[in-house]
Amino acid sequence: TLGTQTDYRDGETQTDPYSPAYVIPSGSVPELLTLATLTWGRGLPAGLAEVEMIERAREKRAWEATLPAMDNASQITKRRKMMEEMERKEWAFREQEIEKLQKVRLEVLKKLLQRREENQKELAAKRLDDHWENHQKAKEEKIKKIQHDCALMLRKLVAKRKNVMGKLERRNIIQEYTDFASQTYAPLSRIGYFPDNHSERYVVKNFYLNTFAGLCELDAFLPDSVTQVKIKAPKPKYTITKTGFIKRSARLEAELAQVHQ
């Protein structure tokens, strides 16, 4: 009739199945005690191997019940033969179990070796890809450097070919100003001239736009239609005809307004 509430979840309080204490009456050996070595997670819940073990234990108990009593020498000899035969069967069964375990371990070992080989192959392939990528980068850098040096040498050869004899040439101002690709219009930065310097001298300066007095003077010349805008109110639409009927468009607009509300 009492209830409790804890701060723990059901999953946190879940334990192994409960195994109650037991008392064995004198003179009885329950078959269930043969499973006392099995615990939850180690044999329980029972699988195929546990069922086979239970069946073997039952067969062994049935076989022990058929053993002859040790009354005379002939019964002892027969008992010994039966026990030796059972021992050979148990050894054969153990050998089969060992072979099964060895096969399972061999399969696991094969899978581990296969996984290790795959990892080594992936690692080797990744290393080769990285090596090839580094070589490609080095190759591209070398090609860029060769192209840059080639362009530099070509410019030098063109400059030398202009004056093969090494004569001094006077400056031709007319030719420089007629050629828009000359140093006058497009000087090179490597000579020491930077076109971006003193760029503010090319900015257009206007008296009417940069000073307040100019703006006032410009505003005085503008017509009134520019500064004083006149807006005409729209005329309302006639929804009723001359004969007194409501137009279809007005009726549709009223219905739409009602639906919207």
UniProtKB/TrEMBL annotation:
Describe the location of the CFAP91 domain by residue ranges: 4-156
Main localization, broad class: cytoplasm
According to the lineage, what is the superkingdom?
Eukaryota
Keyword annotations for this protein, in alphabetical order, are: Cell projection, Cytoplasm, Cytoskeleton
Q: Does the keyword Cytoplasm apply?
A: yes
Which cellular compartments is it found in? Cytoplasm, Cytoskeleton, Cilium axoneme
Q: Which GO terms describe its cellular component?
A: axoneme
The record ties this protein, via PANTHER family, to:
CILIA- AND FLAGELLA-ASSOCIATED PROTEIN 91
UniProt-recorded name of the protein: Cilia- and flagella-associated protein 91
